[in-house]
Write a structure and sequence with these properties.
The complex is a heterodimer.
Chain A lengths: L1 E2 L3 E5 L3 H9 L3 H6 L10 H13 L4 E7 L4 E11 L4 E7 L9 H17 L4 E6 L4 H10 L2 E12 L2 E11 L6 H8 L24
Parallel strand pairs in A: 5-6
Antiparallel strand pairs in A: 1-2, 2-3, 3-4, 4-5, 6-8, 7-8
Chain B lengths: L2 E2 L3 E5 L2 H10 L3 H6 L9 H17 L3 E9 L4 E11 L4 E8 L9 H15 L5 E7 L3 H10 L2 E12 L2 E11 L6 H8 L6
Parallel strand pairs in B: 5-6
Antiparallel strand pairs in B: 1-2, 2-3, 3-4, 4-5, 6-8, 7-8
Classes of the chains: A alpha+beta, B alpha+beta.
């Protein structure tokens, strides 16, 4: 477990794998994966996605949870380019109650911390739909710079919308500890969700 | 002829082209096309790359359209492709390389580009094309301005070439901004070589 200020990073398994069956069919997922077609994801699709990300040598899927253990969503880095030392980052706030909360921002900061301070990447890319204001706000607070707009790049709900391009350089990152001190993150007062029912244990009744 | 231009024609990217690829991928054109990489590539690694690339594209259900570029006398000089294609967004990313440096700066690449843009809008019904190039690629920057692409983003230090960090420039063209190939041929003064 990697411990952050408001969230901890954990392997993407157990409850996270169960929640993902819902999350992958909800708004947060599609907003974070703007290139992909909006399609229903079956249980098998979700399982395959997790397996592929486990095998992915150019990326990773990490779970992040509140300090009380409440699963919040997925931190993803992908398309890591070894020669240039860069990767794309995205955050899926699966539990929409945390959308815009400082826990989601701390998830992003922890992902950046991992990419810069552990993987020693040089640059991170991020994209945002122009109306995804909470994400744009978090990118800016994390220090990402808006580098341009791909015009009418994405088909979204009957319209063609722009795609906002962001980048953050390792040299611009003051380090996680200092960044958190600057931002004075505040925990939100969100009750943990009830634990999802474990599928494997459905048959066996505990005595 | 698949797509007939003034200085070049676009034809299927077949064996006549793949036979040249080993030379092209090991000369200066690859440095620009691969935004700064200079890794010498063996025939075997090229073949492996081609196979893996095709499998990966098929796995992800990705469409790609590759053309060979040849001069009017049939000499293969390079390739141009809609190499990332998102039909549901009606967007494609362009990639091109003139593998024979003696054809740089003579309008051959631009002629091929005009053909592909026209093809993408008029036959494939796309709405938008985009591409990325290194900030130091003055030839492509000039070409983008001439043809009417808009500089939409500058991704800072997004690639590395010859010991320095380089920006990647993103250029885009919308269908309603495209005056048509004939107008561009006229404006740029493209004429057959005598």
């Amino acid at each position: 477990m990697l411990e952050g200020t408001l969230v901890d990073l954990v392997p993407f398994e157990d409850d996270f794998a169960i929640y993902l069956e819902t999350w992958m069919n909800e708004e947060a997922w599609f907003r974070a994966h703007v290139w992909e077609r909006r399609e229903p994801h079956t249980e098998d699709d979700v399982k395959k996605y997790i397996e592929n990300m486990e095998k992915n040598e150019r990326g990773g899927l990490i779970g992040f949870q509140a300090k009380n253990g409440d699963p919040i969503g997925a931190l993803i880095f992908d398309h890591e380019w070894t020669r240039v030392r860069k990767a794309e980052v995205r955050v899926v706030v699966g539990d929409s109650r945390y959308e815009g909360a400082d826990e989601a921002l701390d998830g992003l900061l922890m992902l950046v911390r991992y990419c810069f301070e552990t993987r020693n990447l040089h640059r991170l890319d991020a994209v945002a739909l122009p109306f995804h204001e909470t994400w744009i706000e978090h990118l800016r607070r994390a220090g990402f710079v808006h580098e341009g707009t791909l015009r009418q790049h994405i088909r979204w709900d009957g319209d063609y919308v722009d795609l906002e391009m962001f980048g953050l350089l390792q040299s611009e990152w003051p380090g996680y500890v200092q960044k958190v001190a600057e931002l004075s993150l505040q925990p939100s007062d969100i009750e943990p969700k009830p634990k999802p029912e474990k599928k494997e244990q459905k048959e066996a009744q505990p005595s | 002829m698949l797509l007939e231009g003034i200085l070049v024609d676009l034809v299927p990217y077949g064996k006549r082209f793949t036979e040249q690829e080993h030379r092209w991928r090991n000369n200066e054109s690859a440095f620009w096309a691969r935004v700064g990489d200079r890794l010498p590539l063996s025939r075997a690694s090229l073949e492996r790359w081609r196979q893996e690339h095709a499998e990966h594209a098929a796995q992800r259900g990705r469409r790609e359209i590759w053309f060979g570029i040849q001069t009017k006398d049939g000499t293969p000089i390079g390739d141009i492709a809609l190499n990332r294609f998102w039909p549901h967004h009606r967007v494609a990313m362009l990639g091109a390389a003139i593998g024979e440096p003696e054809y740089w700066g003579g309008g051959y690449g631009t002629d091929a580009l005009l053909l592909v843009v026209d093809y993408a809008f008029d036959w494939l019904d796309l709405r938008r094309l985009w591409l990325q190039t290194m900030g130091s690629n003055a030839r492509v920057v000039r070409q983008m301005e001439k043809v009417g692409f808009t500089l939409e983003a500058r991704l800072r230090q997004a690639t590395y070439a010859d010991g320095v960090w380089q920006d990647l420039l993103c250029y885009g063209l919308l269908r309603e901004e495209w005056p048509g190939r004939a107008a561009l041929v006229e404006r740029l003064g493209l004429r057959p070589r005598g």
